[in-house]
Amino acid sequence: MSQNAPGPPLCGPGIRFASNVAVATQINDLAPFVAPRPGILRRPAVEPAEVRLSEVVSALSHALDITEGQPAGHAVRTCVIGMRLAEVLHLTLDERSALFYALLLKDLGCSSNAARLARIFQADDLLLKRAHKVTDWSRGADSALYAFRYARADRHVLARTVQALKVAFTEQGSGRAMTETRCERGADIARQLGLDPMTSEAIRALDEHWDGHGMPYGRAGDQIPLLGRICGLAQTVEVFFTAHGRDAAYAVARKRAGTWFDPGMVAALTAFEDDVAFWGTLQATDQLEFVADLEPRDRVLFADEARLDDVAEAFARVIDAKSPYTARHSAGVASIAVALGRAMGRPDEELVTLRRAALLHDIGKLGISNAILDKPGKLTPEEFAAMRRHTGYTLEILRRVRRFGAFAELAAAHHERLDGTGYHLGLTARDLSPLARILAVADVAEALTAERPYRPALPRDQVLGIMRPQVGSALCPVAFEALAGMNRIPT
Ligand SMILES: [Fe+2]
Ligand SMILES: [Fe+2]
Questions:
Q1: HSE-up of residue 87 (Cα within 13 Å, Cβ side)
Q2: What is the torsion angle, in degrees rounded to the nearest 10, for the CA atoms of residue 132, residue 83, residue 99 and residue 65?
Q3: Stronger pLDDT, 231 or 325, i.e. the higher one
Q4: pTM for this prediction
Q5: Which of 69, 223, 252, 417 could lock 126 by a disulfide, CB 3.0 to 4.6 Å apart?
Q6: Count of domains in the chain?
């Protein structure tokens, strides 16, 4: 199709509007939506009815990895190590099934303390989290060094010292509170996903230590659930293995046996210390293709349509917890987008896709530092460029999930504009499907409608007034008119 060929109109005959929606008189002004170029905003293909839950969550676990400042594949490799421990320890099938999901989803609560961490240290939370994973924070000297090294890391030594002292004297107890938030949020989301209670308990106990000096509850020994002990050891072994190799991983495990880790677990770890093929394979791949085989065969969980919605809702909670500025943003965008789609007469199956895309559209923000996301002032050009990368991350993350990959491009297009002034691809009207146009309008509307720490929620008329100058040039007039026709903007 040539560049100027007329495409199907955005809202052609048969499109139904709710009765109170003033149908766009601008309909003829609409830039046409041209059939997608290869790779751009295709409609979802027909998918197989049955998909394994592990396939979905293992791919999405990469979003948790980047939130933790870890290389992609951290959770999956942790799962491989933990399931090998389960084999050595002869865990029951039920325990293995619960452990499998705890290992993959151990960091479900990871975004909930990112903003506070960045604020306390006045630094990049991704860097702080990465460094924290290789710090023995149960030792006072190591914690002090960590604070000195990473507090205001980009500033002069004096500013760093002042900030580190501030952390030491005014933030006592913050570490425990942040760990509690993280563990409780993670356990709660696992429960929301309908996973075994043992999975939630393991996630809650992730940072407890064998000697009782862990967090948040200071449980000791057998008070810590068995699966939690395995997760704690497996994640540390993975971090040191990936960063420094097998010998370093075993050295840390042995050094912390009896303090951080159950000595029995560390003994189990030695059972495959010399399995060169195991460690070699772990290093060579991100294990995504193999990890599904580690789920006990007669305990395989499948994700039907309802469960896929649960997964999208659960990860929307992870995304929204990343910043106090966007505490209910993803859920709110989903509500608005579906209401717009319905008012514009989009078919139900499209609304299902639209809702999932809306819930996950900002998943790439998990890879952006809160020092940028929550910065009170104007962003520098470099910070703005970093912020704009979140849609590319959304695309990368969702493309890895077979059942979500079909709407990855739609979700990642929420900052694209009809006139090509958006990002990250600079798409124009001819590339943007009706759903992409709806999502863009819903995203802006929610951002203006929601209460922010620095301002109250804006009333409907003010939201419409702010958006109106962009309508037609950047934002879709039909979607905007559907919004304007609502008595109340849903949130
Ligand atoms: Fe966004
Ligand atoms: Fe957004």
A1: 13
A2: 40
A3: 231
A4: 0.84
A5: 69
A6: 2
Rounded distance between C-alpha atoms, residue 333 and residue 421, angstroms: 21
Residue 365 known to be catalytic: yes
Q: Which two tokens stand for residue 63?
A: 């979003």
User: What number of residues does the chain have?
Assistant: 491
In the chain, the amino acid numbered 270 is T
Please report, as a single letter, which amino acid is at residue 33: F
From the CA of 448, the nearest ligand is: 2
Residue 342: Cβ within 10 Å count: 16
**Which residues have a beta carbon within 5 Å of ligand 2, which is an ion?**
362, 443
Q: Which ranges of 276-328 does DSSP label H, i.e. alpha helix?
A: 276-284, 288-291, 305-320
Assess if residue 226 is contained within a domain. Answer: yes
Q: What is the pLDDT of residues 106-129, one digit of tens each?
A: 999 988 877 787 777 777 777 777
Final residue of a structural domain among 300, 319, 353: 300
> Which residue among 300, 320, 344 closes a domain?
300
Task: Note the pLDDT tens digit of each residue in 423-450.
Answer: 999 999 999 999 999 999 999 999 999 9
- Cα 112 to Cα 251: distance, rounded to the nearest angstrom: 31
Orientation angle between helical segments 226-244 and 246-255, nearest 10 degrees: 140
- Rounded distance from Cα 65 to ligand 2 centre (Å): 21
Compute, in angstroms, the gap from residue 489 CA to the centroid of ligand 2. Answer: 16
Report how far ligand 1's centroid is from the alpha carbon of 230 (Å): 36
- Residues 461 and 407 occupy one common structural domain: yes
- Evaluate whether residue 148 is within a structural domain: no
Which ligand neighbours the alpha carbon of 416 most closely?
A: 1
In this structure, are 93 and 223 located in the same domain? Answer: yes
Provide the residue range defining the domain that includes 239: 63-111+177-300
- CA 442 to ligand 2 centroid distance, Å: 9
User: Taking a C-beta distance cutoff of 8 angstroms, is the pair 392, 425 a contact?
Assistant: no
pLDDT tens per residue, range 208-251: 999 999 989 999 999 999 999 999 999 999 999 999 999 999 99
Examine the domain organization and report whether 346 and 466 are in the same domain.
yes
Q: Is residue 238 part of a domain?
A: yes
The type of residue at 156 is: H
Contact (CB, 8 A) for 319 and 110: no
Q: Look up the CATH number of the domain holding residue 256.
A: 1.10.3210.10
Tell how far the Cα of 362 is from the centroid of ligand 1, in angstroms.
5
Given the residues 133, 166, 365, 378, the one annotated as active site: 365
2 pLDDT above the threshold of 60: no
